[in-house]
Each structure stands twice: as structure tokens, then as C-alpha cells.
Amino acid sequence: MREGKLDDALALYRQTLETSPGSLPASIAAGSVLDLMGHGEDARKYFQKAIDSADTPEHRAAAQRAMAMSYAFEGNCTKTVEFELQVFEYYGSVKNFYQQGEIADEAARVCIDCDDLNNRYRAIDEDTAFHWYQLGHDTGLKEPGITPARQDLWEFRWEHAQARIAARDGNPAEAQQHVAAAKAILDKGTNPEQAPFLPYLQGYVAFFAGDYKTALEELQKANQNDPFIQCLMGQTYEKLGDKAKAVEYYRKASTAIAHNPPAAYAVPFSKKKLASLG
Fold this sequence. Notes:
Shape: globular
Distance between the termini: 25 Å
Number of helices: 14
Oligomer: single chain
Radius of gyration: 19 Å
């Protein structure tokens, strides 16, 4: 997969399933490769098999989460939420509030980006994203004995989310207020690992405000291995009229091999962009 040989990877996973048809990891892996290849309908057959054959609630939740991401690759907020909700309920049953918050944020992340792939439902998807981000924030804070650092983490994520939603809604002033609040939380120093997410946010907000020069400057400070960042940089270069750099970053984003929200957005979007840009 790291060499970009998705067909070979799929063949190996299928070979494993011939000898171990009940292998949950192999079923999820085969489905994940098919999603990266753009074959979502075939992918979901493997995920459904994994769901049906899971021997524990935890394994079933893992397969349901993979199914949710499969729909994310098609920009389907509604179906993504349907399966993320099942995973959210599983973690609720075992009182794992932190993981519940993570799952809620994951569902929200998919929905906030869906309008670029399926803009017929833009308003609905953004409302859904706001609901799930708020649910993630509120649920995460229920963690027993939660530390001040963990509280700051959820507050940072909530401000980060609200800034992005405001930016997409065309409210740059409101977005900047949330950016400032997110920065103030980060400046407390309780979650240094979140530092790369601030320039990502600043670049994101600048992009949707039409300030592409600032967007590029900030995005260049973010995680350069994140396919979503690569994809957004491609869009920024395209807005700046630099087709060659846009293609370069779309090509990077299109080769992501993760099965998560950044790749679910970046891979199909970048492939469409590469096709349109020739």
C-alpha cells in the first residue's frame, strides 16, 4: 500500500480471507483498500461481513466504524452518522466518554467537509456537524476525574470546530473570534501536541475568507503529511493561479492510504481535481 500498489495489497488480503474467512482485520483491510480505489459498494460488502461475524461488541464497533468511513469516502454524511452512532452507543455502554467524544468529532469532521463532494446537502450537513461537534465536546467532558489538560483539549477542539463552521458559513469575524479563543487555550501549554492544528485552522479560515496568500503561509506551518492539508494547499495554489503546484499537492493527497476522515475527503476530491486539471 505504501508503494501505491493497491491491487497487489487487495489480492494479498483476499488471499488471507481464503484461508481465514473469519478474519476481522483482513475483511476491514480489504474493504479499506477498495474505498481508496473508489469501489465503495464492494468495500461495504467486506465491512458488513465483518460486522456480521464480529465475536465481541468491541470488534463489531470497529467494523461499524470502518463502514462509517466507507460512506465518508462518498461524502455521505447521513450514512456515516448512522454507523458512527452505533459506535458512539457502544462506547457509552462501557462508559468510555473520551472515546465517545472522539467518535462524535469524527462524525462531525466527515459532515463538515461533505458539501465539497455533495453540495446538495450543504446546510443539512453543516447543521449535523455542529450537533456532533457539540455532542463530542459535552460527552468528552463527562470523563470521570477528568484532568484540566483534558478539559482544555475538548475546549480547544470545540473552538476549532466552531471557527471552521463559521468560516464555511461566510462569517469571517465570528471565525476569527473562535480562532483567538482556540489560541488562548493552546497558549496555556497543557496540550502542546495540538500546536500543529492552530496554523491548520488559521489557514482554513483565511482560505474561506478569500485571503489565499495568508492561507498558504499558515498551511505551510501545519502537518505536511496530512492529506487534508495537502488537498487544501492544492486548492489554495489553484486559487492563486499556480496550476503546477496545485497538481503537485493534489497528487500527494490522492495517494493517501489511511481510512479516516482526512483521507476520506482528500482522496476522492483530489482525484477529481487531477482529472479536471489534466
